[in-house]
Amino acid sequence: MQELKQKIISHGRALNDQVLLVDSFLNHQVDVRLMAKVGEAFANHFADSGVTRVMTIESSGIAPAMMTALELSVPLVVMKKQNSAITRGDVYTAAVHSFTKQTEYQLSLSAKYVSAQDRVLVIDDFLAMGEAALGALNVISQSGATVVGFGIVIEKSFQRGRDRLLDKGYEVYSLARVKHMTKDHIEFHE
Ligand code: G4P
Asked: Is the pTM of this model over 0.90?
C-alpha cells in the first residue's frame, strides 16, 4: 500500500535495525483517514473469504481491525492481555512471550464471542517474530473457529513471523513489508 509506505518514510523512525517507531500515526496518535484506507485494503483482499469476525489483540491492533470490521460489516473482537492466568468463566487462553518487548502475558478470548462456525480474520499492527500472532492462533483454534488469514499493517520481513505463519499454512497479507532498515533508511519489499 503506497500511501502507508510513504507515511512510514515521512513519519516513521527506525530506532535501530530492529525497531520501527510509528507513534505519530499508528501506535500512539492515530491517523484515522489512513486507518480507514488500511481497513478498506484488508476488507477488499479478504472479501471472498467468508469472514464472520475480525479479531485483534489489544491495544494497537484495534484501530486497523475496527476499520476492517466496519468495511466487512462483521463484529470486531479484541483479545485481552492479562498478567496472570486468573480467568473467569469460559475463556480460551494462551501464554505469549514477546521477544520485541521482553514481556510475558496471558492472551484471553471469551467463549461468548466466538464459535466453531466462525471464520476469523486476524488483524495486527506489527508482525515481528510472530509470537502474538501464534498466541492468537492458539486461543482462536481452541474455540474450533477457522482462521482465514492474517492482515498485518507493518511486517518486519527480516524477522521470522511471516515464515512461521506460512509454515502453518496461513495466508499473511501485509500492507508494508520492511525488508531492511537503518536509522536513516527504510527499504520495502515490492
Ligand atoms: P515478537 O514475536 O517479536 O514479540 O513480535 P510480535 O509480532 O508478537 O509483537 C510484539 C509486540 O511488539 C506487539 O505489541 C507489536 O506491535 C510490537 N512490535 C514489534 N515490533 C515492533 C516495532 O518495530 N515497532 C513497534 N512500535 N512495535 C513493535 P503489543 O505487545 O501487542 O503491544 P501494543 O502496542 O499493541 O499494545
From this structure: yes
